[in-house]
Design a protein that fits this description.
By secondary structure, this protein is α/β, with parallel strands linked by helices. The chain contains 28 helices and 16 strands. The strands form 4 sheets. It has a 6-stranded parallel sheet. 57% of the residues are buried. Bound molecules: FE(4)-NI(1)-S(5) cluster. FE(4)-NI(1)-S(5) cluster (NFS) binds next to helix 13, helix 20 and helix 24.
Length: 665
């Protein structure tokens, strides 16, 4: 068989820092996910959703027309079951993360976790109101205990439904109730997916997929939304901070610690430990000037949003960070951690430290996190990293980093638009209604080693902001835009269309807003729900000129997110390959079928231009349905600082004529 061609670094990534390190990997023959993707072909039957392995009579590979599994399961059933199981795994991951945060809050409230406290009492009270917890006159820690217990109840309560569903627009809640897909509790719907997809159980594709929406809603409006709120309560609700992105944030002369994974619980403590004068002195005693922190994946987004910890990179940069030779410890907790980091780290001085009781990696150092002595463990980890500094060999830190301003929680967006007393999304709705902002795109999700790193993220976001579409982001998509330099207010002057630029200038926001980690997609749901209830853009999320996308998706969590966004009324486009492309009927159900039921649809598309075209068409259609004026960029751009700047560059006579017309003599 012909050997698969290995991509050049320029074909494998659009990010300069990554390209230079991929070059180094080629020269040194270091294995990375990029090279593994080149040499290991994906199984086409599995990737298209046509392989059933839910029992010991299989795996059954349904490749011929009309073929069924040994039990008689059709391709439709098999593809739907595979999709549903992806949703279950994704929803479980987000939600279990949320549950652990509730236990941390409980431990803090009961006095067992002395290093944690309630940093945002206002958010705690807001949670209490949604969770039917009495707030009047109660001490904060007593309230925190009851909120933590109520939050834990949402995962497995016996009766009723998830209480946060009432945060959705009324019309949306009715749709869920009429269809019978309002989730009862977080865990039950996930367990039920596993039950339904066991051999010989639910064998109707549409029925299986309806339940996938129910479980995914339990993620979006349950597990993930609780995770976001609990993180805000424990660590503070984000507001804008200044930071930097890309591997250039690592320092040659400092101890570099990468925090990677998803939970903010331990990483917040490591950030605190790294600022401890005693530990800085310890690092100096080892010959380092100080201690630098950098984040990868969603741990990065969590600590960036609240503490301004620089972003070292997104998902596909975790191994590249090790290739710099400058990472003294990579501390990982849960999710999106490639096993490959351990093998690669063995060839450098980097120590991989696993910390979660749920995630050990063979060959890594395990220092299990215990919330009862969190800071103490964090300090041990920082000390270990400082010890490793003395073992460093040559370093290759790319000279690439970009400034960004993240921290756009929905609370801050309200504040930015309306001020402290009049916080509101009204100006956003008005800007969309007038056509200054054509619509909104939520660009989220992963990188995928099978496609060019950051390429689709970069392309679609560039096109959207150029065409006056406001982009909100989370996860690794957000990190891609941060590295691209799109997350400063100044980026609007250079890259945004005339209408969006006016809005960004007036409010002082970037054209691409960083809203946090992947569980923080719940912040996007909250913004959409508020936009729908604010008025002027219909009554439901499905009425808003908005599109969601994960052009470089790879994880099951991304499939769960996409599903809850669709079930919440959004049009969602997932990039590159589809996990159900082997079955036309399932593809029809999740697009046309779901659109008829819930107003949102899911599509898969591997072409950037086509993703943009479909998105614009959807946004313009929604504008027309709402009776809004047709998008016309020529109406905008005649105001704001940009215009003044442009005028000031002209010689005086031309400047006067341009500003006032030739009537002024
Ligand atoms: Ni989201 Fe965040 Fe990144 Fe994808 Fe992984 S880190 S939870 S799953 S790869 S965006």
């Amino acid at each position: 068989m012909a050997k698969k061609r290995v991509r050049t670094p320029e074909e494998a990534s659009r990010d300069k820092a990554s390209i230079s390190l991929l070059q180094l990997a080629c020269e040194g023959d270091f294995e990375t996910s990029f090279s593994r993707a080149d040499t290991l072909a994906a199984c086409p039957i599995g990737s298209d959703g046509m392989c059933c392995k839910v029992c010991g009579m299989g795996p059954c590979r349904l490749v011929k027309e009309g073929q069924t599994g040994v039990c008689g399961a059709t391709l439709e059933t098999v593809a739907a079951r595979n999709f549903a199981r992806m949703v279950a795994a994704g929803a479980a991951s987000h939600s279990d993360h949320g549950r652990d945060l509730a236990y941390t809050l409980l431990a803090a409230a009961e006095g067992h976790a002395p290093d944690y406290t309630v940093r945002d009492p206002g958010k705690l009270k807001e949670m209490a109101a949604y969770l039917d917890v009495e707030t009047d006159g109660r001490p904060i820690m007593e309230l925190a205990r009851d909120v933590a217990l109520a939050a834990l109840g949402e995962f497995g309560k016996v009766q009723g439904e998830i209480l946060y569903l009432k945060r959705a627009p009324k019309k949306r809640q009715e749709i869920w109730h009429n269809l019978g897909i309002a989730p009862r509790n977080v865990d039950r719907e996930i367990v039920e997916i596993m039950h339904r997809t066991h051999v010989g159980n639910d064998q109707d594709a549409e029925h299986i997929l309806d339940h996938s929406m129910r479980a995914a809603l339990g993620d979006g409006w349950g597990g993930s939304m609780l995770a976001t709120d609990l993180s805000d309560v424990l660590f503070g609700t984000p507001g804008p901070v200044i930071s930097e992105a890309n591997l250039g944030v690592l320092q040659d002369d400092e101890v570099n610690i990468i925090i990677h994974g998803h939970e903010p619980t331990l990483s917040e403590m490591i950030v605190a430990a790294a600022q401890d004068p005693e530990l800085i002195e310890y690092a100096q005693s080892k010959g380092a000037k100080g201690i630098t922190m950098g984040g990868i994946c969603c741990t990065a987004n969590e600590t960036l949003m609240r503490q301004g910890v620089p972003l070292a990179g997104n998902f596909l940069q975790q191994e590249l960070a090790i290739l710099t030779g400058a990472v003294d410890a990579m501390v990982v907790d849960i999710q999106c951690i490639m096993q490959g980091v351990v093998k690669l780290a063995e060839q450098f001085h980097t120590e991989i430290i696993t910390t979660s009781p749920k995630a050990k990696i063979t060959g890594a150092t395990h220092m299990e996190f215990d919330e009862h002595r969190a800071l103490e463990i964090a300090k041990e980890i920082v000390r270990k990293a400082a010890d490793n500094f003395t073992k460093r060999g040559n370093t290759n830190i790319p000279d690439e980093s970009t400034q960004l301003i993240p921290g756009f929680s929905h609370e801050y967006i309200n504040y930015a638009l309306g001020g402290f007393y009049r916080g509101s999304l009204r100006p956003l709705n008005d800007a969309i209604a007038a056509g200054r902002i054509r619509g909104v795109v939520a660009n989220i999700g992963c990188n995928n080693a099978r496609i060019c790193h950051d390429d689709l993220h970069r392309y679609v976001v560039t096109e959207f902001i150029k065409n006056d579409v406001l982009v909100v982001e989370t996860g690794c998509g957000a990190i891609a835009s941060a590295k691209q330099g799109y997350m400063t207010p100044e980026a609007a002057l250079e890259h945004a269309g005339p209408g969006l630029r006016e809005v960004c200038e007036a409010v002082g926001i970037p054209p691409v807003l960083h809203m946090g980690s992947c569980v923080d997609n719940s912040r996007i749901l909250t913004v959409l729900a508020q936009m729908a209830t604010e008025g002027g853009l219909g009554e439901d999320i499905s009425d808003i000129p908005a599109v969601g996308m994960a052009p470089e998706w790879m994880s099951e969590k991304a499939i769960s997110i996409a599903t809850y966004c669709v079930a919440s009324g959004a049009y969602v486009i997932m990039g590159h390959s589809s996990p159900v492309s082997g079955c036309e009927e399932v593809d029809r159900i999740i697009s046309d079928g779901w659109e008829a039921k819930v107003g949102g649809r899911m599509e898969f598309c591997n072409d950037g231009e086509e993703i943009v075209r479909r998105s614009m068409a959807h946004i313009d259609k929604k504008r027309a349905d709402l009776g809004l004026p047709e998008y016309d960029p020529s109406k905008w751009g005649k105001s704001g600082d940009w215009r003044i700047q442009e005028l000031m560059e002209l010689p005086l006579p031309e400047r006067i004529e341009a500003a006032y017309g030739n009537t002024v003599k």
